[in-house]
Amino acid sequence: MGSEIEELKKLVEQLQSQVTRLSDQEEVRKLQYKYGYYLDKCLYKEVADLYSNHPDTCVEFLGGRYNGKDGVQRLYIGRFAKAFVNGRNGPVHGFLLDHPQIQGIVDVNPEGTRAKGRFRSMMSAGTHDSVKDTHPRGLVQWWEGGIYENEYIKEDGIWKIFRLKYFPFWHATFEKGWSHTKPNYVPFLKTLYPEDPNGPNELCENPMLWPDCRVVPFHYTHPITGVQVADDDLRAPEYGKDPSTGAPPLTLSKPKSET
Source organism's superkingdom (predicted)? Predict the structure, then answer.
């Protein structure tokens, strides 16, 4: 009887561990989905509050890295709010900026303190004809597709965004589609803070935009082989050419504490 009880205790511990892991995965997934809903409606203060206060917190966007909670606020409450909604927190009439967060793959570390997640966004954005003369973007409508490879941290029992790395893959006007998008359709960030009051702290290496088709590295290994995708297979050379002729493979930045 004693051995059976011990076996049952072990089983209960295993089940508790699995339930905790699954619960953590779902909480991280919900966190990212909530991020998307706030971002849709230009609720930039709420977005910034989803981030950790950890000194290694950052956001990577359009070739720039915004470091720390101050950098996070500078991007969302500074750059985005001023560009899209005249500095307010919340939407303005006639401006669309939907960011569906889909295909979420979340992995939590064994300690249950850190997690990584890969998500996709398919954005539809633009202005309504009725505001073409009053909104600074004029009359415009566009599509955008991108990949997130994010890191999350649990602080005081609450999951928060730690390092959000967004790779906008392609842009397209609604009228002509992605086949006619000019290279570097949206210019990469080039001027650092404080020269640009809303600029990034540093620039990322080898940023990518359509028609560049390099693979955003996966935080996970192959589920069957347990192997990471080879560096050369992350490249995107021109058709028929050797991989070495393509741009260097993309890499995922790490917190300073891990470098």
Answer: Eukaryota
